[in-house]
Structures are given as structure tokens and as C-alpha cells.
Amino acid sequence: MEKNALWRRVIKSKYGSSRQEWRLNTSRPKEMSVTWWGIVENSKRTKVTKWTGLNSYRWVIGNGKSVLFREDLWCGDKTLKEEFPRLFRLALKKNCFVKDVARNNNFEEVHWESVFSRKLLDREKCMVEKLNFLMSSVVLNEEVEDRINWIHESGGIFLVKKLSYLLAHDGMKAIEFQFDRIRKLKVPSRARSFL
């Protein structure tokens, strides 16, 4: 959202990934500040990744220049790498963007023979047909940038307030605090006020 904000430029220059603008490089912990290291470590916890992991984001395709073809969630309910692992083991270019695969801003004229390292078997051709069907409705628009949506918010925008709510209420039952039990404790009144 705030592409030119100072905080974003600082984080991107210090911890940004060379592969993709929105991802962060977390592989060099010794080069991280203590604060950033804490953020990275927290983001790896299961409770947090449930709400902020890669499967919590879905791309809306515009020009296809920001979205990795096989690793990002943009077409279907899984990444294409998860949906078609066999096809992508055969792919010549492993880290290409959606724009690199499309022909004339759509996927109807893709020459799959040039994408794979060998001629496809019959069962692999069936997988390509399924892949073509999944991508048939996607048309690139050169004038619109790709947009990432957070699936846990109806507007698609990541909100810290919503994440805090989800983390606080994740699998917790409502706790009814029993104040009357504290009042009935046989302790000095000074101690009771701390409880």
C-alpha cells in the first residue's frame, strides 16, 4: 500500500529479498538487528503462521510482474507448485513470474513444449490441460499492478488490529473471571487489592 513510505524503503533495503519485492530475506540472522530478529522468530511460530503464512495471502493478477508463477497463490486454491509438483520438477525456469509465462497477456497460446525439459508423457499432458483450465480465466492487464490480499480480512488489507484479535481468540474459550472468589479470600485487604 505505502510503496514510497520511508519505513518500507528502509526495511526493503536492509532485509528485502532479491527475488521478490514483498518477501523478506530471513536467512542471515547474524546480520539482523535484535528487534528484527525478534519479529522474524515470532513470525515462525505456528500460532502466527496460521494467520500470516504464505497461504494467508492471495494475489490478484494485474500485469503479472510481481507474482511468481509456481510459488505464489494466484490461481486456484493451492500454489501451482503444490498442485502440479511433477510438472514443475520438469520446468526449465523454476523462478519465473506470471508475466514470463503468458503470451499476449493470456495463457491460451502458451507453448508448453518450450517450458519443460523433456517431452511430456500422456498423464503429464492431462496435468497441463488441467493447468490450462485453471489459468483460462486469467488475463493480464499491463496498466494495473498486481495486488496481494490478506484472506482473513474482507477488504483484503492486512490489519494489525484484526491479527491481534485472531491471535488473542485463536482456540480460546471465553474465560469467566470469578471476582466473588477473590473477595471471599481470607487475606489482608492490601493483598486482596493486588489480586
TrEMBL record:
Name used for this protein in its record: Reverse transcriptase zinc-binding domain-containing protein
Native source species: Gossypium stocksii
